[in-house]
Amino acid sequence: MNYLNADLHCHSVVSDGTLTPEVLAQRAKANGVDLWSLTDHDEIGGQDRAIEAAKTVGLRYLTGTEVSVSFAGKTVHIVGLGFDHTQPSMVQGLQATRGGRELRAQDMSAQLERVGIKGAYAGALKYVGNPELISRTHFARFLVESGVCSDTSEVFRKYLTDGKPGFVEHKWARLSDAVSWITQAKGIAVIAHPARYGFTPNEEYALITEFIEHGGKGIEVVTGSHTEAEAARYADVAREFNLLASRGSDFHSPEESRQDLGSLPALPLDLTPVWSLLKEQVH
Ligand code: AMP
Ligand code: MN
Ligand code: MN
Ligand code: MN
């Protein structure tokens, strides 16, 4: 099972990716993906399209989403896989999680205006594919387009991360809620890109143990945002805490993403892949 070329993390125009679910399905297929999931931020509006598109190109598919969660003063991402995307608590929970994005975007724009960057809200909106899902990525694309920065990672570094002029603190879902929406809908909750959070060892321990207490079962080991050393470290975490291992590129765009769909290293063979417990949920 570990040798499957599974790519269980990516984004479409339904959140902050630049490709449609249909084009992503074709790209995944062309790149040799065996099992795919579209995991738009706080949104499952693209799932029916992804299921259909996967069927059309002959690709196995698991439903997916990436839920924004506030934990220990930071934003943590929890990926949900293989759930029933019509389950009401999931649908309503994600809708509530998306709800604050509009005001947050207006606040971000007002803050950017104070450092001389005008029209960022309108500028970001030009890149938005889903009116309920304006994200920092859309602002980053606008700031590159308008010449303020030369690439999106420079925008995040200088403007959109904690302490920088365009950053607005935001209250996302609770960890316990995100995990229970996913598990109540018969899916598996997975901690996304654990190396990205910059937690202290104590905070990370709290995240993992609370996540497990609430019913979380998986962790991303091989992801587009981990180095080889980080993947090795979180393989150890998966062993230590008996977590299922997941693998996903976090692909957003051919121009911006470091990892293309289906192009990641394999999971270590001794780990139990998350898809081994999701066989019945495969479309
Ligand atoms: P948001 O949900 O609006 O806070 O936006 C989060 C998204 O911003 C992430 O899912 C990434 O796509 C993107 N992002 C976060 N940090 C960076 C970074 N340092 N460089 C490029 N993109 C980033
Ligand atoms: Mn994103
Ligand atoms: Mn993420
Ligand atoms: Mn992601």
Features:
TIM Barrel, 2 domains, 5-stranded mixed β-sheet, 283 residues, 3-stranded parallel β-sheet, 13% strand, 38% helix, binds manganese (II) ion, globular, 8 strands, binds adenosine monophosphate, single chain, alpha/beta, DNA polymerase, domain 1
Give me a quick take on this structure.
By secondary structure, the protein is of the alpha/beta class.
Question: What does this protein look like?
Answer:
This protein has about 280 residues and is an alpha/beta fold. The chain folds into 2 domains: about 5-100 and about 185-280, Alpha-Beta Barrel (TIM Barrel), CATH 3.20.20; about 100-160, DNA polymerase, domain 1, CATH 1.10.150. The protein is about 40% helix and about 15% strand. It has 10 helices and 8 strands. The strands form 2 sheets. A 5-stranded mixed beta sheet has the order 4-5-6-7-8. Strand 1 (about 5), helix 1 and strand 2 (about 35) form a beta-alpha-beta unit. The longest helix is centred in the middle third of the chain and has 14 residues, at about 100-115. The protein is globular. It starts with 5 loop residues before the first strand and ends in a 35-residue tail after the last strand. About 45% of the residues are buried. The model has no long low-confidence stretch (mean pLDDT about 95). The chain binds adenosine monophosphate and manganese (II) ion (3 copies). One manganese (II) ion binds near residues 16, 41 and 252.
